[in-house]
Amino acid sequence: MTPLGVIVLIVLVDLLGFSLVMPLLAPFAKQYEFQDWQIGLLFSAYPVCQLVAGPILGQLSDRYGRRPVLIFSQAGTALSFLILGLSRNFSVMLLARMLDGASGGNILVAQAYVADVTAPEHRARGMGLIGMAFGLGFVFGPLLGGVLLSLPLPQEWRLRVPFLVAAGFSTLAWVLVLIRLPESRRRENRALETARVVSWRGIVDTMTIPGVGRLVLTGFLAVFAFAAFEGTFALFLKQSSMRWDAQKAAFAFAGIGFLSAVVQGGLIRRLVPRFGEVRLIVAGLVLAVLGFAGLGFAGLSLVSSPSEVISSMMLLGVGQGLLSPSISGLLSRITPANEQGAVFGTLSSSQTLARLISYSTSNVLLGEVSIGAPYWGAFGVDLLALALAGHTAWRFRLGTAHASVGASERTRG
Fold first, then answer.
1. Rounded to 5, what percent of the chain is helix, strand, coil?
2. How far apart are CA 120 and CA 138, in angstroms?
3. What's the mean per-residue pLDDT of the chain?
4. Rounded to an integer, what distance in angstroms lies between the CA atom of residue 281 and that of residue 220?
5. Contact between 101 and 45 (Cβ < 8 Å)
6. Domain residue spans in the chain?
7. Torsion sign (Cα): 9, 12, 15, 21
8. Residue 210 gets which letter from DSSP?
9. What's the mean pLDDT in 340-344?
10. Nearest-angstrom CA–CA distance, 252 and 244
11. pLDDT band at 404 (very low <50, low <70, confident <90, very high)
């Protein structure tokens, strides 16, 4: 198996464990009669710690290599799931969630690894494979969780076993890193004197690399909008005239994940050579804007049409499938080789911050305004991202995006 295949398999295995337990964290905490604010802390501890640690892990991977950081992050994830599965104490569980967030550099380092081992013209395809693994993990993880919950186990262990299985998945990914994954950064390329300082000043400096700040901001806005959908869609389906229950909502999310995975894993490698990443970013945002408008109108209607909602979901799934690998692929191609980890760490943290803010604001809009309000808000955010992407398209002259980026890379070289 090639290094690219190994890193995609590692991401898939890791995401299976992550998505297996995320829907079960709240009921697991409720089992021990934790208060609502404690459950909220268990959820927020991971992204907050990842927000701080992401850029630092990325920069460390630039300095010391991707493999050591992946070994550390996978070990931290496996240990955190093991602690969660065996603990009943809130403080211990909170520390486990903080450990998982602080060591949660798996995806961002995997993206930097892909940039190391692929030619510039194949970056979006490699990022698409990572996105496909991400999507498939979120499809099959919850399904596996449902199967595990149906096992005839003592009540005490029904919600513990999925966490232990997730720990097993993360341990398997850790073993794969140890025995199958070669280092992608050659020692002579780990130029300490040119890598960004591991500090918040270094993060600010990273954003000043030409083109990086604009793309990171576009990625931030796109994730902010999509997180409004992630955080409210199950409630939207329940409160709309469709009255879909949690099981149907889970199948809807699985369908969107599958559609996005197909786009990222299959179509993107054919589309990028023909259209370029910049056009695909614009196209993805246009589809997302149309999808959010459809959901917004469905929220205004007294009788929501299932076909209207499903078609809007499909537009969002395809749009997100185009956006994620195209932003990552173009970002990797305009970034110097010794800055890949720092840049992807900054992108990861900015998107984590986007989710933190969006989950809260979108649920307030749904509860205090209307069930369609979060999607009109996301519609506006994606319009802003589209304007920013349009400026990027003008800068790269759309059709000459590949040539422009390639020329900038040769100039730096």
1. 85, 0, 15
2. 28
3. 81
4. 13
5. yes
6. 1-182, 199-408
7. negative
8. T
9. 77
10. 10
11. very low
d(CA 308, CA 303): 11
| 199-408 matches 1-182 in CATH topology | yes
Amino acid at 339: E
Give the dihedral of Cα atoms 3, 8, 13, 16; nearest 10 deg: 170
Alpha helices for 181-304 (secondary structure H):
200-207, 212-239, 246-262, 268-275, 277-300
Supply the DSSP symbol for 150: T
pTM for the full predicted model: 0.70
pLDDT digits (tens, 9 = 90+) for 208-238: 676 788 888 999 999 999 988 887 887 788 7
70-82 per-residue burial string, b: 16 or more CB within 10 A, e: under 16:
bebbbbbbbbbbb
Least confident residue range of 55-59, 94-98, 215-219, 280-284: 55-59
Question: What architecture does CATH give domain 199-408?
Answer: Up-down Bundle (1.20)
DSSP string of 22-77, one letter each residue: GGGHHHHHHHTT--HHHHHHHHHHHHHHHHHHHHHHHHHHHHH-HHHHHHHHHHHH
CATH fourth-level superfamily of 1-182: MFS general substrate transporter like domains (1.20.1250.20)
314 is written with which tokens? Answer: 């499909």
